[in-house]
């Protein structure tokens, strides 16, 4: 029987995990993006329309799940789409991995975490070598200066970015920054950035993009 998979989907880490899973022969048919409530802006949720267009570029169906009323919507979706594998792009957050593992165990779904417990620096370098390009769409101003908002991470710019930001986790795993992937091997064609606007809420700055 052919495997059928879904993946959690937002920024560069999740897309690289999807890429690695598909290289292993695990087809990802569905993407799942969570809506969560924080006391700060989320660069990914502010750009949910861009994520919808990116899903179209990958010929994958995107489901958006609001978690404000609990996990029932997520569980019901997993049952409905009848997958056997869930892919996630966690690196360090043990609690999130355990949360997903508990849900998947109850539903008899395998969970794959391709980059979990790996070096952030190694992952980011590998990602760029595989021709990923990602734009920084949200930053914590207490950690990064606003000049990095809109910066394009690529194989050509990575060393410069790391040399100027030596005290952060390279992947931004502590919330230093979040990204929107503009180019990667999963896309039929690169994302075309049409326009963007910059916003600031407390110590967070983010941009909302219009893409094609």
From TrEMBL:
InterPro entries: Diphthami_syn_dom, DPH6/MJ0570, Rossmann-like_a/b/a_fold. Pfam families: Diphthami_syn_2. Residues 3-208 form the Diphthamide synthase domain. SUPFAM superfamilies: Adenine nucleotide alpha hydrolases-like (SSF52402). GO terms for biological process: protein histidyl modification to diphthamide. It comes from the Archaea. GO terms for molecular function: diphthine-ammonia ligase activity. PANTHER family: DIPHTHINE--AMMONIA LIGASE, DOMAIN OF UNKNOWN FUNCTION 71 DUF71 -CONTAINING PROTEIN. This is ATP pyrophosphatase. It comes from Thermoproteota archaeon. The lineage of its organism: Archaea, Thermoproteota.
């Amino acid at each position: 029987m052919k495997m059928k998979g879904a993946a959690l989907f937002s920024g560069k880490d999740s897309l690289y995990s999807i890429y690695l899973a598909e290289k292993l022969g695990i087809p990802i048919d569905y993407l799942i993006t969570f809506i969560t409530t924080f006391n700060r802006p989320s660069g990914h949720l502010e750009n949910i329309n861009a994520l919808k267009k990116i899903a179209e570029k990958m010929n994958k169906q995107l489901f958006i799940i609001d978690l404000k009323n609990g996990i029932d919507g997520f569980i019901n979706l997993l049952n409905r789409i009848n997958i056997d594998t869930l892919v996630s792009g966690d690196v360090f957050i043990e609690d999130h991995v355990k949360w997903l593992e508990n849900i998947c165990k109850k539903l008899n779904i395998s969970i794959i975490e391709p980059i979990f417990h790996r070096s952030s620096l190694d992952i980011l370098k590998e990602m760029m070598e595989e021709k990923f390009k990602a734009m920084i769409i949200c930053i914590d101003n207490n950690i990064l200066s606003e000049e990095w908002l809109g910066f394009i991470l690529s194989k050509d710019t990575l060393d410069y970015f790391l040399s100027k930001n030596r005290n952060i986790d390279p992947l931004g795993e502590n919330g230093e920054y979040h990204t929107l992937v503009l180019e990667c091997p999963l896309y039929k064609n690169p994302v075309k950035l049409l326009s963007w606007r910059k916003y600031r809420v407390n110590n967070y700055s983010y941009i909302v993009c219009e893409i094609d």
